[in-house]
Write a structure and sequence with these properties.
The complex is a heterotrimer. Chain B is mostly helical. Chain B is 63% helix and 1% strand. In chain B, β1 and β2 form a beta hairpin. Chain C has 12 helices and 14 strands. The chains are: A mainly alpha, B mainly alpha, C alpha/beta. Chains in contact: A-B, A-C, B-C.
Chain lengths: 312, 400, 395
Amino acid sequence: MWNDFTQQFWSSTIDGLTNGAIYGLVAMGYTLVYGVLRLINFAHSEVFMIGTFAALGALTLLGVDSPQSGLALVGVLLLMALIAMAVSGGTAVVLERVAYRPLRKRGASRLAALISAIGASFFMQEVFAIWKGRDQVSFPRVMNKDVLFNIGSGQVRNDKVLVIVAAILMMLALDRFVNTTRLGRGIRATAQDPDTAVLMGVNIDRVVMTTFLIGGILAGLAAALYGVFFEITQYNVGFLLGIKAFTAAVLGGIGNIRGALIGGLVLGLIENYGASIFGTQWLDVVAFSVLVLVLMFRPTGILGENLQRARV
Amino acid sequence: MSALSGIRRRIQFPDFMGVMGSWWDRTPWYGRWTVYVLLIIGAFLLPSSSIGSFMTPESDWASVLFYPIGIYVLLAIGLNVVVGQAGLLDLGYVAFFAIGAYALAVFATKHGWSFWEILPLGIIIAAAAGLILGTPTLRLRGDYLAIVTLGFGEIIRITANNLNYTGGPRGISPIPHPPSDPSVEVGGVKIFRYGVLDARPYYYLLVVAIILVIIIVKRLEKSRVGRSWAAIREDEDAAELMGVPTFRFKIVSFVMGASIGGLAGAIFAAQTTSITPPNFPFILSALILCAVVLGGSGNLLGVILGAFLIAWLPERFRGFEQYRVLVFGAALVIMMIVRPEGLLPSRQRRAELAEGTGGMGSLGGETGAVAGQRVEIDEEPVSGHPPEVLAGRDEREAGG
Amino acid sequence: MRRAYSRGLVAAAAASALLLSACGGGNDSGSSSGSGGSSSGGTLSIGFMGAQTGPNAQLGINISNGVELALEQHNAKSGVKQVKLIKYDTQGDPTQATNQAKKAVTDKVVAIVGPAFSGESKTADPIFEEAGIPNVSPSATNAQLAKNGWKFWHRVLANDDVQGPGAADFLAKTVGAKTVAVIDDQSDYGKGLADAVRKQLATDGVKVAVNDSINPDASSFAPTVNKVKPANVDAVYFGGYYSAAGKLVKQLRDGGVQGTFMSGDGTLDAQFITGGGAATNGALLTCTCSSAVGSTDPAVQKFAADYKAKYNVDPATYSAEGFDATNIFLQAIDAGKTSPSDINDFVTKIDYKGVSKQIKFDPNGELAGNLLFVTEVKNGKLAFLGDTSQAKPSA
């Protein structure tokens, strides 16, 4: 067991960070919506899934069916990402309008919103299952997977680097947005105290819409990266990923953007380390057990704020 | 969106619950008992083939009555104790169902115990699991509890899949039936002959179990325990300040819910004679939660109705094959938009909704977030703007 | 007040009266004994049980296509008893299978082709056994099914106890692998198959360097790749289904693992190639089912042509087996047997050359004979190599 762990340490680390980066991007969407609305946006996983299909559609539109390089590659990747982000963002906004806003206006309980989210999630999955079929759909290879260099047992491949760097950059951009722009302040104000925010002139509807939009954009980027990295998608690709990403958000401190990325990276590492020690069949058990342990000793998550009312 | 709320305004749902509720309060005890007896008789008479030909023309009605309908009903009553009465969000309820089922399977096949001997043991094991899960986690806030319970559900399923003792992915089969007595025959049905062909003896057993559970749960609800749960659900801090030992009662609700789940699992395992880990996926927890909320969280009759619908509708609409789940998802969303308090909300809940406080205690409807935010605070104040009337707060109306 | 109370009582009484009246003759459902009997008039019904919707529906559809083709060809002949098909969609779910099986009993089918999957066979077959309905599975390969002492159960292909060791022997002798990694997908079928391979490899003196168990729904199999890569194995065996297999083989190749990839009948589908892309080339897939495509036997060629004409696709995994299973029952019906028990007796003694293989049953319902067939992925297409004694992989 431990032998395997030390032998596979570097490969586990690199792959853990790569997977974790994707979790983190999706987790940031969960955490934003939760911070503002206290809603577990169950349907966020489908926003991601739709993004993957949009990314694939972008490739088909551009007529890309073989690996690109150089400037063409950059162009293709950017276009893929932009289209996926736009589609996912749009989907998230529509989702909010249709499934959550009426409930918000009604003053309905968050549990009702959760059920609505579950229903929306089923609905969107099935739309794509019927439209695109239930089998996997594959992406053409967009970039050659070259190994840049090796650290011990770990292969540092160009697509892995792409994923990790993109996630970190996005997190920093989001952080900046939330901290410096007016809309970002509105988001923070609404998350902190909606009644006072209203009194201070914040437009709650606009804030909520922006929150969902940003969450969707993040999911779209994650989707494009997913397509480049894994090269497949399926109507239910969001399900398991969504649960993992939400776990990551909680692990890092829900409502905390940096926490979401950190939580994602940590979760990716835990999964890979756990799998190398105990065997891959135990990796989910390890991940959830670590979550329980972390929450027991640090109830607000890794980076959680001290002001939280996590302990009742 | 606005179209739906417009429709809602025009179609006033008749205040059925109001009328029934006030009649119910005023009627003397023999009136209520008549209804109970009639309902029980009705439940026993349900699996007739003429009803079945309408209810599920494409599947065997008695089988569907047992699973998914009957089992979902029992599970929903159990989850209602946790979510509806104590206000704890449990996303991993399927774990207790699995534990009860595996307890029966393991003890019946490996140790040769009979069904009736294992049943109390299975309930105790599930209750113990509830205790073990609850103790470290029930101090956490609502939504943290949600993800942890989800994780626990997955842990149980994956562990059952990985261990040889529980049969691994093969599961355990064949599980022996409860001891049969083929001599007792009522109305042409051998009610104690437990076999694979006829689901009705199992159904009757399940009805008896449901009735017993309802009696226990009702008594708890009216007792000090139930009142404490209501206090915890509405405002946990206030309850704590008023001297309610909240943690202890939360554990009690958890253990109670777990026991009911375990009971359902044991009966399920006996009927289905073969259980495997894929019988207990996370999606089942989500469905039971939908049943509870859809039916009217906190209201026993409501959750029974909710579970019945959630279990029956996909079977009834088998003809739509491809579109079953699609319609189901859309139906959930529309139901929540049109009637978020559930089909038969408890009168307390409707009153809360009329006031606009959104009910559900700590899971209540806030349009923003409750104090205690998690997004980082910036020191700079928001620049002064005249207060605007927000589009978010106008159109709420009173009543359901 | 009095009025409201009596109104309530009247309502309750009316409701119960409604219920009581509705339960007219409700005592006969589902309690039939062994001698079923034929359905109305001159039309008999055969049932197909398997997945038609849901994940892995394709395998069920392949079979039902074969069944429908056989029935169509039979009913078109003059002077034969018309036979109807009733499809029971279980989505491959064992609990749905029980409900559907009871429905089939109520519908008084005289025979069942199916259940398609091993999991659903476990729960549905006891019901058919008790009701006395002969059933022939064209695809359920779990070896345990034959050990239940069932009299009405049969299958027209060899079980996993043949597939697993056969694959292991093939790896050891024909492929010449000295170290192998064996991966399974934590499912009943996949783990069962992989365990059989592990056991036989040990007997053959081949080292199983890596054992691992993946979650087929996961996106990343990096932990598995990271275990397999340093072990430098000659071959990787995967027990599981095609969607996970495609993802796995792609990640293995991208991770630098070069050994031969081998898997079983759950992977034998064109979707494996779509999902895995170029990484699938050279993969070896076994099946106790045979392939109707590319055969030199004129009867098989006719089947393939008819299938293609009706469905616009080539017959796929288990289509031929579904076709053969149906024809066995049709032969019994044509010989004048109309009750389920007579049909069962006929089928038990049959010796028939089907388009998939020679069909004859052992006393316990297993197929006599244990041929294993190998298919290789060549240039993005499935290429049938024949049975394990003659197959020669290109690598």
